[in-house]
Amino acid sequence: MGAADVVPGVSGGTIALVLGIYQHLIDAIRDAARALGTLAKGDLKGFWSRVTALDFLFLVPLGLGILLAVGALASVIETQLRDNPENMAGLFFGLVTASALIALGLLTERGAFVYALMAVVSVAVFVLLGFQSGPVSDPSPVAFFGAGALAICAMILPGISGSFILLMIGMYAAVIQTINDREIGNVLLLLLGIVVGLALFSSVLGWIMDQAFNLVMAGLIGLMVGSLRVLWPWPNGVGVIAKDQSEVIDGTGVDWPAGDEWFTPTAFAVGAVVIVLVIARIGARYTHHADG
Questions:
Q1: How far apart are CA 139 and CA 193, in angstroms?
Q2: Hey, CA dihedral for 139, 144, 145, 147, is it positive or negative?
């Protein structure tokens, strides 16, 4: 999930969905948010009771894995996106396409309204992702806090990427540079924004999923389909990631490949679809055995 969250266009929530842990993730985060809410009210006894009930065997390894992946892979993925944008885009295009198919299979009810919702969300996201801003120059501490809070909301949604939200608001280059340079103050502000945004958004998302699961899933499928605009390999893949904050980042143009440019990205996409479907099948068997 951490590796996916670094990539503009790929969501950590998509990985959670593929691996069959998405609902568990939302429930666990919501439980943690409730504990923080109890602490905010000054109820220390209630806070401790909720904390001891948290699924730490799930949350701690997952959280550490995400943080380690972001820290270790930020520069590697940044380099690959810059040097091989079309191939990387093909890989992620296949991953998200397969994830949308898997999410479609999770629907318990289908009808005209559900499919209409998918279509509307897909078109809206496709259009909105065509807008990007130039990089923010010398962002303030508040900007880092806000970037963390906003990006984490997208990161736990399958389909839309927190990294691409950072691209849209002009904070991607600054955040990547902060992580690579180990700027502790700004990193802490990012983490604080992530905690606050995650606590607020997970509670809302969890409640909505409890009330209208199929509509939420239809909306999430629409997010994934619409986000494929960012992952279309041509003309330049996931976006040419600037080496410095003075460059404007491109990457939402949609064109057709010239000559034999289609082969390698397409092969990566097909390979990604196969891998994701195999992982999903393994995850389904694991979940079935665990429930049994």
A1: 15
A2: positive
